[in-house]
Write a structure and sequence with these properties.
The protein has a domain at 1-137. Helices cover 78% and strands 0% of the residues. The protein contains 13 helices and no strands.
């Protein structure tokens, strides 16, 4: 019976990768809560146990679960064999678990498993690159940009590992690595998948809908994000206006051109639209933060922009895409019932609460309290969502 379950669980790549992603998302968030509640003391910085873990451990596994399914379909190639994606999964799972445990018990060896994780990531990149090269599909723009973003992630990951060495510019390099990993890797992959899949999902519900997408949209955004990474290295939010204003207007203009039929689609689709709008809100918030830095520098915006994207955009889309993929590939009807809609709404409340946490100290409120409250609620929502959807994954098909 166990063998039968094992075969079902690994019958599709998204099942083990999504399960692992949600597991480590929960574990690293619990670790974060324990540290900020003074229950646990770690001898590493938040860049490692929170930023690094989210960028290169958690979100990466969600991506691969999705990419290992859709990449061959995009390029009209044979599905990735179970033997290959199982090999990748076990490498990611083992190294992720070792990173998590080493951070708690012996952080001096964490970098060893980071190196192994990077090597695994390189093999995943090569796998996707080979599929891209073999394809005879003429238009491969979307998969090309996924690979470009993935390669940027490899460089960012390598830089972060190098920053573990104790030298004069190690902290500076670690920040460059996290910023480039966040924007050039995560943000670009999310954006590339979003502009490919969301109009596609929309047409499934509204057949006459046409999204007028700009051919050079991804290229322009990528160049501006490189500019943003350079500007962030100066550690002065006033300069962010140089990159954020053009990105804000370009993405806003693009989304307007898509003419998304908000009131003609079901919850399983409009939650994806909501995730897209967080891109615009995130850059708008960044612009507001920069103006405050110029005219009233006493106002503090603690990581508000990063979490606008990480929770508002990334996590909303992960839950939205994840729900749809899990239902569709398990033979269930692709519909968000009342339970799922409540999860969607609760997640948006948590995003707003995290943004409020970023500015609450300006009103004399307890920042740590609201930060921990947000993290605890987020873990609870993930567990509630998992009680239905990860259960489906664990059953397998």
């Amino acid at each position: 019976m166990l063998f039968s379950w094992y075969k079902r669980f690994f019958s599709q790549p998204h099942q083990p990768f999504f399960t692992s992603g949600i597991l480590f998302f929960t574990l690293f968030m619990i670790l974060f809560i324990l540290v900020y509640s003074n229950i646990l003391v770690l001898d590493t910085s938040i860049l490692t146990y929170h930023a690094y873990s989210m960028v290169f451990v958690v979100f990466l596994q969600f991506f691969l679960g999705f990419l290992f399914v859709v990449f061959p379909k995009f390029l009209m190639q044979a599905e990735i064999s179970e033997k290959i994606y199982k090999r990748h999964f076990f490498a990611y799972f083992f190294n992720s678990l070792c990173i998590f445990l080493s951070l708690i018990f012996y952080s001096k060896i964490t970098f060893v498993f980071q190196i192994f994780l990077l090597i695994t990531q390189i093999f995943s990149f090569k796998l996707l690159l080979d599929i891209h090269k073999k394809s005879l599909v003429q238009i491969k723009n979307d998969t090309k940009w996924v690979l470009i973003a993935f390669f940027a992630g490899l460089i960012s990951h390598f830089l972060f590992i190098i920053s573990n060495l104790d030298f004069k510019y190690s902290f500076f390099i670690s920040k460059i690595a996290i910023n480039s990993g966040f924007y050039l890797f995560l943000f670009m992959i999310f954006l590339t998948i979003s502009q490919r899949m969301i109009p596609f999902f929309t047409r499934a519900k509204v057949p006459n809908h046409v999204a007028y997408k700009s051919l050079k949209f991804l290229k322009i955004v990528f160049i501006l994000l490189i500019l943003k990474i350079v500007i962030l290295s100066f550690d002065d939010v006033r300069f962010n206006l140089i990159s954020d204003i053009p990105i804000f207007f370009i993405i806003t203009k693009e989304l307007i051109k898509w003419k998304l039929p908000i009131f003609k689609v079901e919850a399983i689709i409009w939650i994806l639209y909501l995730g897209l709008y967080w891109i615009v809100l995130g850059f708008f918030i960044s612009i507001i933060e920069s103006f405050f830095a110029i005219y009233n520098s006493s106002i503090y915006f603690e990581k508000i922009v990063i979490h606008s994207f990480a929770l508002g955009y990334f996590l909303t889309l992960l839950i939205g895409f994840g729900t749809r993929v899990i239902l569709g590939h398990s033979g269930n009807q692709i519909v968000a019932n009342r339970f799922t809609v409540i999860i969607f709404i609760a997640l948006q409340f948590i995003v707003l609460l995290r943004l409020f946490s970023s500015i609450c100290s300006n009103f004399g409120l307890d920042y740590i309290f609201f930060l921990n409250l947000t993290a605890i609620l987020l873990v609870l929502v993930l567990l509630v969502w998992s009680s239905k959807y990860i259960t489906i994954l664990l059953k397998g098909k």
